[in-house]
Structures are given as C-alpha cells and as structure tokens.
UniProtKB/TrEMBL annotation:
Role played: Histone methyltransferase that dimethylates histone H3 at 'Arg-17', forming asymmetric dimethylarginine (H3R17me2a), leading to activate transcription via chromatin remodeling. Maternal factor involved in epigenetic chromatin reprogramming of the paternal genome in the zygote: mediates H3R17me2a, promoting histone H3.3 incorporation in the male pronucleus, leading to TET3 recruitment and subsequent DNA demethylation.
Protein's UniProt name: Histone-arginine methyltransferase METTL23
PANTHER family, sorted: HEPATOCELLULAR CARCINOMA-ASSOCIATED ANTIGEN, HISTONE-ARGININE METHYLTRANSFERASE METTL23
Alphabetized InterPro entries for the sequence: Methyltransf_16 (IPR019410), SAM-dependent_MTases_sf (IPR029063)
Keywords assigned by UniProt, alphabetized: Chromatin regulator, Cytoplasm, Developmental protein, Methyltransferase, Nucleus, S-adenosyl-L-methionine, Transferase
Gene (name only): Dere\GG16975
Main location: cytoplasm
C-alpha cells in the first residue's frame, strides 16, 4: 500500500510497511542539481507522541538544511527528538549530533535508534542517542559533550513541562558559552506562554523569519503545517543588565 503527499518539489512519500500501523515517511531536501537528501522516518500512527513526525519537525529540518554549509563539525543536541528528523538532517550535513528523549521511555529511545539506522547512521558511531530528563540534572546531562547549538521541534506541547524544558535549556546554555537554542513551536493556545519562565531563568527569545524556509527545496511549508500556526524562535542567555550574552 502506498500513499502520496505532494510538496511542490519531488514529493514526500508515506509507504506502508507493516500491518502494525508502522510506515516509512520520506522527506526530500534539495538544493543545486547535485544536492539531494532523502530522509526516511519510521512512524507509528497509533503510537505515542514520539513515534510520529509532527508539523514542527520538517519546518526545523528545512531551516537546518538551508544552513547546511555552516553545520559541518558543529556540535548539536536535539531535545525531545521523537522521530529525530531535524537531528538526522543535521548529522547528514556532517554535524556532530546527540539525539535525546526521556530516559524513562526506552521504547522512544529505541525508536530514535531505528530512525538513525533507517538513514545509515549507526548510533554510537555516526550519531549519539542519550536519555535525558527535563528539569532533572542527572549524570547524563553532565556527561554531554560541549555544544554549539541546541535544537528542538515542538517540545513546548504541554504546559506542565514548560519550566522543566526552560530549566534544562538554561543549564545547557550556561555550560556552553555562545551556544543557542533554536526551536519550532506549534501554537495550541493563546493562554500558553513561556515569557515569564524565560525572564525567571535569564533567557530571551527572538523570532526567526520563516518566509524563505523550504523555497530552496521547492517545498511549501504550509502543506507541512496543515493549518497550524508554527513559530521559529531562538533563545539565548542574558546577563544581569538584560544584555544578550553571545560569548
């Protein structure tokens, strides 16, 4: 059984693979005639949140792809990786990537590894997969390598975990001077906000324009977004005087 999703360039395919509702979803990224990257993501439509590629992920993945020349050698951590599309794209662009998800959800971590293997990335060799707990500074957090960039797609999906995420990000940015946190966020309620939490933990968010994202690959992001409102933001530390700290 084969399904087709038009994207304005080549296409994004969904290929049914098993009778257990698992399928492989394909995402195509392109640039010059010689540049084409196809990422295969295993999905379980009837599984938990982390087994499905939510609309925020391809938006962030295309943002990274269009900056692929700057990613080589960069040390990148993805929070709440889920199916890990953005992190896998970064790894394919020769970044040194650590994919993470909840340390008490071994099936989610196993699914991340499966996504890596579907794209010829060997966990522990070509890419790392680590269990983390947001808000808890466990040994796994202290064992993380130095970072240049932290990324996440749709990690702010539940207000009950907002502060845990912000605490984790604040800690990682403090340990990695000059690092940034870039993430996509799906607007689900006008009442949800992290502004007060950012101020509390001495962080500042700046919007990033999404106007040109996807154009290089001939992709219309509105099709990925499916009618949802999605934002792309960058978070950095601020000093005691409220100045953004980039060093």
């Amino acid at each position: 059984m084969r399904f087709h999703m038009k994207s304005g360039s080549e296409e994004n395919d969904i290929v049914a693979a098993t009778a257990t509702a698992e399928h492989i979803r394909k995402f195509v990224f392109s640039g010059s005639p010689a540049e084409r990257l196809e990422i295969k993501i295993p999905e379980l439509l009837q599984g938990a949140y982390s087994f499905y590629t939510w609309p925020c992920a391809p938006v962030l993945a295309h943002f990274l792809w269009e900056r692929r020349q700057t990613l080589a050698g960069k040390r990148i951590l993805e929070l709440g990786s889920g199916t890990a599309l953005p992190g896998i794209v970064a790894a394919k662009c020769r970044a040194q990537v650590v994919l993470t998800d909840n340390c008490i959800l071994p099936k989610s971590l196993a699914h991340i590894r499966k996504s890596c293997q579907a794209n010829q990335l060997q966990p522990g060799v070509d890419i790392d997969v680590v269990g983390l707990s947001w808000g808890l500074l466990l040994n796994s957090v202290f064992r993380l390598p130095p970072l240049d960039l932290i990324i996440a797609a749709d990690c702010f999906y539940d207000p009950s975990v907002f502060e845990d995420i912000v605490v984790t990000v604040a800690f990682l940015l403090e340990r990695n001077a000059g690092a940034k946190f870039i993430f996509t966020y799906q607007e689900r309620s006008a009442d949800w906000s992290i502004e007060a939490l950012l101020k509390k933990w001495k962080l500042q968010a700046l919007p990033i324009s999404m106007d040109d994202i996807g154009k290089e690959s001939g992709v219309d992001l509105l099709e990925f977004m499916g009618g949802h409102t999605i934002h792309l933001l960058e978070i950095m530390r601020v000093d005691s005087e409220g100045t953004i700290n980039t060093t």
